[in-house]
Amino acid sequence: MLVSAKEMLNKAKAGHYAVGQFNINNLEWTKAVLLTAQELNSPVILGVSEGAGKYMCGYKTVVGMVNGMLEELKITVPVALHLDHGSYDGALKCIEAGFSSIMFDGSHYPIEENIDKTTELVKICAEKGLSIEAEVGSIGGEEDGVIGAGEVADPKECKAIADLGVTMLAAGIGNIHGKYPENWAGLSFDTLDAIQQLTKDMPLVLHGGTGIPEDMIKKAISLGVAKINVNTECQLSFAEGTRKYIEEGKDLTGKGFDPRKLLAPGTEAIKATVKEKMELFGSVGKA
């Protein structure tokens, strides 16, 4: 059964580790993440961007697929199904479809409008027992058309949003989506520390987890980050595994063209990446 992310993230913040949000794109992706979480006895958050939701034939299809897998694969670890970088309308649709957690990304609005829209969604989520993530200071790079320059959030604005009753807070601290450029300045730990001082026990979220050095990840966790999003790294692993299979001509041998065989190496590569991240984040055995 899907659960809110609230309890798993509060435990992570108190225990100084982080729960991974792994974005899913299809059946193979979802299966790989769930099986790895079960194997490692780790809580997990399945992230779905609006673009990926559309690709997978809508939010109701995603909910049906995930719920079916939880039952058929006998998944017993806590699993939250979370809308990633959602619009206001997208958040309402996911709530209706049966998601257990949503993110409303109001970072591109003036702070007053971000507060107003977040307030409305906090009320709805509280009534339904869902967790909600809000964002202050946009995350750099691009994800499904949502483009951010990687600004550093204002800690006072972060407190204003945190005080609305959100479950978790994503704050821009120089992180970006996708691959990090060679001239990347790194994370602003001074900003992260200032945000934690003001938001206290609020679990903080680090978007753009792909490519951030391990020492920075560990330091971010020590400064209150309890949820880390991973997407691009799994995509790169999947592409590499699939490419190797085809370049070796295995799709031309026997029934190697069968999609179940063709997609298997990429799926195994996702599992390896998820395992690596769960070990780094410290969530193994914390279910």
Work out the number of β strands.
Answer: 10
- Unreliable stretches (pLDDT < 50, length at least 5) are none
What oligomeric state is this? single chain
- Structural category is alpha/beta
Number of separate helices: 12
H/E series, N to C? HEHEHHEHEHEEEHEHEHEHHH
Helix content: 40-55%
State Rg.
18 Å
Strand content bin: 15-25%
> What kind of sheet is the major sheet?
8 strands, parallel
Task: Give, in spatial order, the strands making up the sheet with the most strands.
Answer: 3-2-1-10-9-8-5-4
Characterise the protein shown here.
With 287 residues, the chain is α/β, with parallel strands linked by helices. The chain has 12 helices and 10 strands. It has helices spanning 6-15, 27-40, 50-55, 59-72, 88-97, 111-128, 155-162, 189-199, 214-222, 232-247, 259-262, 264-281; strands at 19-23, 44-49, 79-84, 101-104, 131-136, 141-143, 146-148, 168-171, 204-206, 225-230. The strands form 2 sheets. The chain has an 8-stranded parallel beta sheet. Strands 6-7 form a two-stranded antiparallel sheet. α2 crosses α12 and α10 runs antiparallel to α12. The mean pLDDT is 93.
